[in-house]
Design brief:
The structure is a homotetramer of 284-residue chains. Helix content of chain A is 52%, strand content 6%. The first copy, chain A, is mostly helical. In chain A, strands 2-3-4 form a three-stranded antiparallel beta sheet. In chain A, helix 8 runs parallel beside helix 11. Chain A starts with 24 loop residues before the first strand and ends in a 13-residue tail after the last strand. The N terminus of chain A is likely disordered. At the A-B interface, strand 1, strand 2, strand 3, strand 4 and helix 1 of A face strand 1, strand 2, strand 3, strand 4 and helix 1 of B. Strand 5 of chain C pairs parallel with strand 1 of chain D.
């Protein structure tokens, strides 16, 4: 596909090849000349103040400006995963590196490395899973049938499908809000619809799984990103952009408020920040 | 200072200490309970769709919501450094790691590691430099006097002050736009004013430096971030958030369009992307 | 298998699970008490001066002391890949990060990230490939038959098997030496024997591949490491230990002898070091 | 100095400069031609089987073969820090990244990033500290006088000098063994002698510090490495090479024996490995 989904499938290893003789090569991202920077063709200084960062990031990744609706949706996606407290491996990795006195960027890089298959990587896995499911639909199944079959397969394999269930949240508050926005902004497509159908099929089988299996934030981001046409690996990249401020905030807090070389006990922390508060009316 | 600027000064190495006995510890960033996530006190699902990603990032880093003007300014800062083509070390590091077939996040982490003193780190250096200059002002010098003295020191040391001059841009188009916005949005303060005064003082000495020394993007971001009250190391963090989509776009382009294990010759590339185009009127 | 080869197969992604409640957990590597450090049960201070670093590394990774022969073999394996000049992606990544003024460890970390599927990762791929081939033997094929079949499969798939051929060396001088030592030290087993048989089978088909396909250093390390009983992922780890001094030497050379922020053109370098020389007789 | 100690002093930030026009550049490390690899001038295949890995690493870093005594010493140094259990930040960072299912090399890279000022970085700090002390000697003080003054300064600053004291070991078993070997192998020089003199001076002031201040492993490595002529930043590099097998062993143990996404409580672990045992007589 033109959107880069034809990248290397998970884990496949292409053979090493002779080093290509270095020659002229091409990029389609940014053109830099003295006093003139064009990002995907748009003058960067003209973008400054006119595009939100999320819209500019979308332009950079997808090559075209988002519509107003997609711009809103992408801002929402990026906000939805901006932080999730101290217990994710990426946050603990960043804080652990910070205890050694390492500079902030080293803490952030270590956090980025902790976005493994079980953490963030689920988005790409879920996007691939949904496309596999949709191939059933293209082969003539109704969406509902496809969802039932995927749910049956999951029960048989005793494996929770990617994008469902959460270790803490029975109903992930981020997922509901994102899917509601996708509906209101009319950006949802077949991936979101399959995700919703699968959620119903799984909940009808909740007893077999022994736990609630609502769509989680990763699942909502995966389905919406797929409907927006993101390449698989860019699905994970979206999560990476989203979580970066969280990694930075935690590494900075660790570096500025904790003793160096402390042993971090993940579960023995207390929240002592601002009490619950609401956004001002002007924000609603 | 309360904003964390009292972090370890550049390069100072605090002595190793006995590992703190692990005990309960505190965080002020995010509270996570089943079905309820509060970021700096605000329900995350309420933030989704109501705050731009840049505003949410500001909240996470600074602890409070930005005003509408600061939200606009912070979006603009993040957009201004979102990409600068293939030649920055961070971009080349990300692309070089990509040639080995490494996953996207590894390319991004390597890129983050290349934000060294000469690349991105300039923002923190410039923030410290401006605070040192402002201490002259607090000791009774006029802003203009302080700027003249800093310029004289630079000439004597034959050292270009941080935040001035660019290897490619005689007039960095990003800097002018950012400073104009800081003025229009009325968020500029003494750091920006000192930066402007210093630019004049340096340009009066252009002959001694043998090259134009206009404020560059790092300098504009540093001065504005300092006026917004960012801690020094968060100045670099702002650049890190800003550039992440660029690192991702380049690593993804390398992974999906180039042969693995190629030798990358930085200067032998051509831009073959979208031709120059303008933002639609609706964006102005 | 007990040696950890039953780790996650390449690219397989296990589903995320609820975070394990933190409780007491166990390690079998090193016991640390005041004034007493036991590595795999041996007092560390007793190991110092009595084991070579390679022998100590083997003990750490495998849990038991190597025999004298295996100790010699493992030293040889680690020496064989200690450096390969400036063009490998890991070396270029380390040097590129160094141009930004980043500290040495950041350069090394970026280099480590460039050990992707095409670079270093080949060792694990080759170990898995050989075990697949040996399963044919266990199913009754003669070693030679198995080799012929693997060669035929490779011709049909137009894919060079892992561990064969090199972008620069028609006959990789490291591979021959390592395999000769494995023979002399009597540590070679079925993996090495299959590798040799496959080399013959491939060379009989050299015309179909259009290039010589001798065993390369990765292939020799993979076959010998498999015969020594290393887990797949530790095969890559062996390469990682081996190449670390090379990454450090290049990052240090870049940091101390080159101008910061230079653009590195991989192929435009010259060697200006010590002229060819021989080891003193006492070393033979 | 010729040994590269004239690298950038800690934390100094050189100004960014225009990107050097890429042209031919030089390396003195390794020459690679078809079927012929020369490391510092020696044929790599000739080194294989004739040099221990530690000797080959010394050659790579220092440019010359070590004497037999220095080869023994360097092997000993590398063995001395090969692992220190689960609590160092580098080990915890590697294990934390492993919980996400990230590949081994990502765990190792994160571990390398945790070699910050408080962990490993102490070696470079101690080397610089000793050279500063020796400048007193060159200015006419006796070694003992210099040590007394450094001890007095430390008491006054209430700061433990780098390379002394350990959070766990009152007498670090690694340090004693290393210094004993340096004496027996006659490789000790003024840095080691100053370190010993300072240890006496500090112990005479133990009451002021309220804790024993014996030389620790970092201090012994720093003093011996300095006497061997290592550049400051290579002092840390030595630690990095030494600890790599430890990082790998812990990441591998985490990946193969623990549930993914577990929360690691550093202090709640038990050692369940091999019971204490002695090296065979043949090793003594």
């Amino acid at each position: 596909m033109s959107n880069g989904r034809n990248g290397p499938p998970q884990g496949q290893e292409r053979r090493a090849q002779p080093r290509a003789a270095s020659g002229r090569w091409q990029t389609a991202i940014t053109s830099v000349e003295p006093n003139r920077i064009l990002v995907r063709g748009f003058p960067l200084d003209e973008m400054v103040g006119r595009l939100s960062f999320a819209e500019a990031a979308y332009l950079l990744l997808m090559g075209e400006l988002p519509t107003a609706a997609i711009g809103k949706m992408f801002n929402a996606i990026l906000v939805s995963s901006i932080d999730h407290g101290v217990t994710p491996p990426s946050t603990l990795a960043a804080r652990t590196v910070a205890t050694s006195g390492a500079p902030l960027k080293d803490c952030v890089a270590a956090g980025v490395l902790a976005f493994g298959p079980h953490h963030g990587g689920d988005i790409e896995t879920c996007m691939r899973f949904l496309d596999a499911g949709l191939s059933l639909v293209r082969n003539g199944h109704a969406l509902q049938q496809a969802a039932e079959q995927l749910a049956e397969d999951a029960v048989r394999a005793r494996e929770i499908p990617p994008g469902f269930g959460h270790r803490i949240h029975a109903r992930d508050p981020r997922a509901g809000r994102l899917l509601q926005m996708a509906l209101e902004l009319e950006v949802e497509g077949e991936h979101v619809r399959l995700m919703r159908a699968l959620e119903q099929a799984l909940q009808a089988r909740e007893r077999q799984f022994g736990r609630p299996l609502a769509i989680n934030a990763d699942g909502a981001i995966a389905a919406i990103s797929a409907d927006l046409g993101f390449a698989y690996e860019l699905g994970n990249a979206v999560f990476l952009i989203s979580r970066l401020p969280g990694l930075i905030a935690h590494a900075h807090e660790e570096r500025t408020t904790e003793a160096p070389m402390r042993l971090i006990t993940p579960s023995e922390h207390d929240y002592h920040g601002a009490p619950e508060r609401r956004l001002p009316e002007t924000r609603k």
